[in-house]
Amino acid sequence: MQRQLFTQPEAQAIWDRFFARIGAICRPLPDEHRREFSLELEDHLYESFNRQEGASEVERLAIAIEKMGDPEEFVKPMVADYQLATAGRTLNPRSVYLGLLFNMSRGVKAVVVSFLYGLGYMLSLGFLFVAIGKPFSPERIGFFAHDGGGFSLGILDQPPAGATELLGYGVIPLCIVLSVTLYLTLTKLISRGRAKPRGSR
Fold first, then answer.
1. Residue-range domain boundaries for the chain
2. What is the pTM of this model?
3. DSSP string, 88-132
4. N vs C: which end of the chain shows fewer Cβ within 10 Å?
5. d(CA 100, CA 79)
6. Those residues with Cβ within 8 angstroms of residue 17's Cβ, 6 or more apart along the chain or in another chain
7. Measured CA distances, 146 to 28, 103, 149, 150, 152 (Å)
């Protein structure tokens, strides 16, 4: 339910649009957390509105909103922190995904950090695919030693001539352990550091 705080309809409309934007950005948050955050921002903005000098409510509210800033800049990092902290507690892949996605709002360095974490999660998923796929295509999936030197772990279109599969079905538990260990390590790291680049606030 929207709060009626102004005598001028134009001011109320500006207020409602501003918090509709915030509500849309906060949609990934649980309802209770979203309401608490919205009420906190409403109180902060209304106090700022009351401190402004202006000829009308619209003018004073516009000044207060300008001072608060763009919701994209201050709400998305909060959502990112919440989702990444939740990921650390629950290990929920959805929280990991949303946390990294919203974390990109922090700037170029954060985009790079989120991208690197994303690559790590893709590698974890790759190990899992190897474990799942091994029984269905044992001749193309596994840990191979090449005849001319070198090794390959993964899913190959066609193993090189002379390649030897070293682990057989033993690659399944190995890749499961690698997948789970990498996932847990990355998730604990992002939940502690909130996936911020070094030097971020």
1. 9-106, 121-193
2. 0.72
3. HHH--HHHHHHHHHHHGGG-HHHHHHHHHHHHHHHHHHHHHHHHH
4. N
5. 10
6. none
7. 47, 41, 5, 5, 8
CB 184 within 8 A of CB 91: yes
Total number of residues shown for the chain: 201
The CA–CA distances, whole Å, from 188 to 21, 35, 106, 115, 195 equal 31, 28, 20, 17, 10
SS3 20: helix
